Amino acid sequence: MRTFEKNGKVLPYMISYKAIKNTYFRIKEGILYITTNFYVKESVIHALIDQKFDKFYHKASEQKRIESDDHIELWGRPYQIMRTQGKFKYHMDEENIYLETQMKDIVSIKKKIYHLELEKMLHMLLPQIHLVLAKKSIYPLPIKLKYLKSKFGSYHRKNKEITLNTFLARLNPIYLTYVIYHEYAHVKVFNHSKDFYNLLSELMPNHKLYQKDLKKMAII
Q1: Does pTM surpass 0.85?
Q2: Domain spans in the chain, listed from the N-terminal domain onward
Q3: Tens digits of per-residue pLDDT, 150-162?
């Protein structure tokens, strides 16, 4: 494993060479993994890392923040999990989640809570969002919930449906609102052109604040 240092910060990285055309970067467990063509010089790789160093370093640092098994982040707030045996159900107060479950794997438990929390939040948010969308002749689509590793949401033009990352249940609900408007804007404009962002600004005038924040957040 090698390291790239800039402004006193150190980023570990690994390079894999394959018979591919493009160069790909991904962060996993705090390490930058680079996959590139056999003929790409390391000096070129260094230049690319240097260009996006702050973004890579931030994502790597986020992944290093390990959340303990008895804590969970929901809607931008930390909670302690108080777990007992029983059929899966939970309720919350200001500081704790009181959880009954037979499940043993804490990762699966948290993902199930994210899914259920997102369902409840969508039930509250979507009526108002649909009213805003209707003004632009954009109408409700089926929404799938899935824990994704690389994106917060997607619009599937062929199937005419939206997928939302249940990881959004960890963040302030305003980010969920932004992602919903973002994906619905693709119904009218599929690419990220000027027309797309003009439409998104009409749907959610302050969207740039949340778009900028999400780009800095790592999905863990």
Answers
A1: no
A2: 2-64, 105-216
A3: 899 999 999 999 9
pLDDT tens, residue by residue, 71-104: 999 998 889 999 999 999 999 998 999 999 999 9
Identify the CATH assignment for 105-216 out of 2.160.10.10, 3.40.50.2300, 3.30.2010.10, 2.40.440.10. Answer: 3.30.2010.10
The 3-state secondary structure of the chain reads CEEEEECCEEEEEEEEEECCCCCEEEEECCEEEEEEECCCCHHHHHHHHHHCHHHHHHHHHHHHCCCCCCEEEECCEEEEEEEECCCCEEEECCCEEEEECCCCCHHHHHHHHHHHHHHHHHHHHHHHHHHHHHCCCCCCCCEEEECCCCCCEEEECCCCEEEEEHHHHHCCHHHHHHHHHHHHHHHHCCCCCHHHHHHHHHHCCCHHHHHHHHHHCCCC
